[in-house]
Amino acid sequence: xxxxSGVAVxxxxxxxxxxxxxxxxxxxxxxxxxDSSSRDGSSRDGSPRDASRAWARAGVPVAVAxxxxxxxxxxxxxxxxxxxxxxxxxSDLHVEAGEEGTTVRLRVDGVLRAGxxxxxxxxxxxxxxxxxxxxxxxxxxxRPQDGRALVRVGSGGGxxxxxxxxxxPSVRGENLVLRLLDPEAGLASLDALGLLPADAxxxxxxxxxxEGMILVTGPTGSGKTTTLYAALGRILARGGVxxxxxxxxxxxxxxxVVQVQTHEKAGLGFxxxxxxxxxxxxxxxxxxxxxxxxxxxxxxxxxxxxxxxLATLHTVDxxxxxxxxxxxGVEPFKLAxxxxxxxxxxxxxxxxxTCRVPAAAGWTDARLLGRPPDGEPAWTPPAGPxxxxxxxxxxxxQGRVPALEVLLADAPFARRVAAGDAPDALRRAARxxxxxxxxxxxxxxxxxGTTGVxxxxxxxxxxxAECEEGTDA
Length: 473
Ligand SMILES: [Zn+2]
Known about the structure:
Layout: H1 48-57, H2 73-87, E1 92-98, E2 101-108, E3 111-114, H3 123-133, E4 145-153, E5 159-170, E6 173-181, H4 197-206, E7 212-217, H5 224-237, E8 243-247, E9 258-261, H6 270-278, E10 284-287, H7 293-304, E11 308-313, H8 318-327, H9 332-338, E12 339-351, E13 357-358, H10 366-369, E14 379-380, E15 397-408, H11 411-418, H12 423-432, H13 438-447, H14 453-459
Parallel strand pairs: 7-11, 7-12, 8-9, 8-10, 10-11
Antiparallel strand pairs: 1-2, 1-6, 2-3, 4-5, 5-6, 12-15, 13-14
Residues 352, 354-355, 389, 391-392 line the site of zinc ion.
């Protein structure tokens, strides 16, 4: 995929010729920096003029320079939608067909919120425009499709944004979801992630490993990739190491790292790619996801033969990752010898420093927190949306921080793994070795005033009374 000046270029087949080409770079500075959650539904009366007013009220300029007037309205709407999404740091943009017309929602910091209204009647054209950008077949509205595009958003050449577009035919029409990725984001530093000092210290200790296996686990959207990339950044900073990754998809291009995209149809699955990588004299290998027995076996073998292997899995907690590898057939003694540690992660939203308010009395719940946080500061988002905060658009939160469980596979833990112990026994061994749960880490963020109780409970289930150990910050 290449990027030419100001024009969206897709890796997919070129768009059908009957449509206008992508408009040159548009201006993100025109995009609103305040929340435009469509509190007014007034565009629903349907007149284009009122629709334009609704856009204007939402902060999205409708008037365009004379030279641009000839381009179809849908192109402008899409440009403005993308600019709006980027200005609000959205990870996903939903364009949903409904009885009342097309609606737009944004996912910001993991939470969906309303986006600007789409002028009535323009919904199908907007959907077509997005499908063209992503190289999808606009004539096919009956089958799900997916594609991608690289666009520039903003003035002066703009900022590259990679779009992963998927379409889904619904009973009301076509649903489109765009994932927005920043291909130039590079490596965030571990120090910039907002880890609790205790978590950062344990993670740092784990990353001192020169060989063996480090697993990172958590559901989709839990920030695993960001943490892994940041960990790679720290490893790269040591210098003199050859780092190769196999990923699906390659989300960000990393300087100094050889990244391989899997290609199942071409026979390049994770296991095949991993075997090929091991012939390339790597020091550090990152496996995007361990899904099957073969990948797990090759990864474990690589970890036992002098490589540092980082890999992700989808499990609920750290111990779950160990059990999963055992379940897919990695022999317990090999796993025990290879494993250096496991990181389980969730993201909790960071309270907006501009508008957070001291929490009212009664915010603590001894059962919830394990113990009352005597006199410690507690904060919460403001109650009323009367005057939305300009900093966070009234969300009360801005950005997210990782809550981590960092399990260090010390000798007692490794013995339990080698013995093939059940998850409960492994969990006890981990706790005995000083591993704190993700919940405990999140409570640490709560006590530090970084997040609020409502956010904690939105992301995590409160543990039962029997496992409230280790909630000390
Ligand atoms: Zn705020």
